[in-house]
Amino acid sequence: MTDFAKPQEGKRWYVVHAYSGMEKSVQRALQERIDRADMQGQFGRILVPTEEVVEIKGGHKSVTERRFFPGYVLVEMEMTDETWHLVKNTAKVTGFVGGARNRPSPISEREVEKIMSQMQEGVEKPRPKTLFEVGELVRVKDGPFTDFNGSVEEVNYEKSRVRVSVTIFGRSTPVELEFGQVEKI
Questions:
Q1: What CATH number was assigned to the domain covering residues 137-184?
Q2: Helix, strand, or coil (residue 184)
Q3: What is the residue extent of each domain of the chain?
Q4: Which is nearest to 74 in space by CA: 58, 87, 61, 91?
Q5: pTM score, two decimals?
Q6: Which residues lie below 8 Å from residue 73, measured CB to CB, with a gap of 6+?
Q7: Which residues, in sequence order, are bridge partners of residue 26?
Q8: Which residue positions does the secretion signal occupy (predicted)?
Q9: pLDDT averaged per 10 residues, the chain (length 185)
């Protein structure tokens, strides 16, 4: 168990349901409400689980954030009536996930550990936004084989490369290309 995933003394991790696309806004609003109510002692970290994905637009590589669990925010807190009401009455929060109506269940440390390691992996090795599958048809959009269509033979996510079988002069030829050089058809 990493120290980062382990909850602070007396606190547990809870999953809060928020409007999809508003997770960062909920994170900020919750932090502001906690500070205004002077309840920092009952709360720990507030996380929006994200990973970095590589996207290629117009030949330029850009790294963007993608949420693992759209509509959910992880909150480390002591569960009391006051903390429950503070979170529940935050704008764009629809409630807690799991447990009874007014007594949510915390998630296990193992689940938090898994989410944290996914987040860390996403930062260390950004994933491509488009995922390719063997056998899928693609069109080459850049390089010497531009406008050729082919079938994906192999995908290498470590190197962000794909091997595509294209037909050149009536013969099937494997060509190794970067993800940004092909698109799904």
A1: 2.30.30.30
A2: strand
A3: 12-128, 137-184
A4: 87
A5: 0.65
A6: 15, 16, 18, 23, 26, 27, 30, 46, 47, 48
A7: none
A8: none
A9: 63 94 96 97 93 71 81 95 95 90 86 84 66 91 90 87 90 89 89
